[in-house]
């Protein structure tokens, strides 16, 4: 399970097993989506699989995740998604009413994201060999001219911005899965981010890095960027917005909200001369209304992420070994 959690074990699986087997420069970037040159156009291409349990949770479903997750992976390269594929892996005996609800959620989310589900596939496995419904989606989109967004471009001096409060998705899924109540409803943040990224690019095409902190949360994404760029990252713990119900739930369960999955948030590394304008544009967009500056990229401690605590001390935000909450997306 740890190898699918987005942490250190996942990174080792990719680095030591898959990357050597496939062996190509395109894959070597290890970004959320690959940027390809084809017929004179620059395309972003991504694929993802969804095994969330339960299938429906406060604020969304596996269908919403399948669309928004792939659209967002494309957006992290600056691309506006155009087409998706969607494959269903169904367990024998799954109620067709449930399948229909998921399919409808996919269609509704695709319309909201401005993307077309152009092709798909269906497979059925025997009872006991699945968990109701698994989904796989792949997507393609066009990358605008002059846009070069990838984790290797993080540079000392970059301002680190998060698009809104973190941790809601993981806690929402966990609350439904375990029947927990935390005094206030926690709703998943699942949402398409293509429009937000377009608003940011309208300010400047020179965004250095974008990442959506899904599995492994904000901490995992920051570690991946620090490792890829060979720079250090410093954030302020109090600067990271965490909803009060999420903070309370994490304190009760012994979780760190920085490691909890999100499905409608992004973290951006922006050159300092554009940071104020980009932040203002984000706050003017519905998906970035809660955007906040959380730190900077620094030349010290290359490859490491450090958080400043309210007590004035610092702590290392390491890449998690596994995921705190499995089956979250």
SSE inventory with pairings:
Layout: H1 8-22, H2 25-28, E1 34-38, E2 41-50, E3 56-57, E4 60-61, H3 62-75, E5 80-91, H4 96-113, E6 116-125, E7 133-142, E8 159-162, H5 168-178, H6 194-203, E9 209-211, H7 217-229, E10 232-236, H8 244-253, E11 267-270, H9 272-283, E12 292-298, E13 305-308, E14 314-316
Parallel strand pairs: 5-6, 10-13
Antiparallel strand pairs: 1-2, 2-7, 3-4, 5-7, 8-11, 8-12, 9-11, 10-12, 13-14
Helix pairs in contact: 3-4, 6-9
Domain PurM-like N-terminal: 32-143
Family: Belongs to the HypE family.
Protein name: Hydrogenase expression/formation protein HypE
Question: Can you offer a commentary on this structure?
Answer:
- This protein is of the alpha+beta class.
- The chain has 2 domains: 24-142, 2-Layer Sandwich (60s Ribosomal Protein L30, Chain: A); 151-316, PurM-like C-terminal domain (Phosphoribosyl-aminoimidazole Synthetase, Chain A, domain 2, Alpha-Beta Complex), CATH 3.90.650.10.
- Helices cover 33% and strands 25% of the residues.
- It is built from 9 helices and 14 strands.
- The chain has helices at residues 8-22, 25-28, 62-75, 96-113, 168-178, 194-203, 217-229, 244-253, 272-283, and strands at residues 34-38, 41-50, 56-57, 60-61, 80-91, 116-125, 133-142, 159-162, 209-211, 232-236, 267-270, 292-298, 305-308, 314-316.
- The protein has a 7-stranded mixed β-sheet. A 5-stranded mixed β-sheet has the order 1-2-7-5-6, with helices on one face. The chain has a two-stranded antiparallel sheet with strand order 3-4.
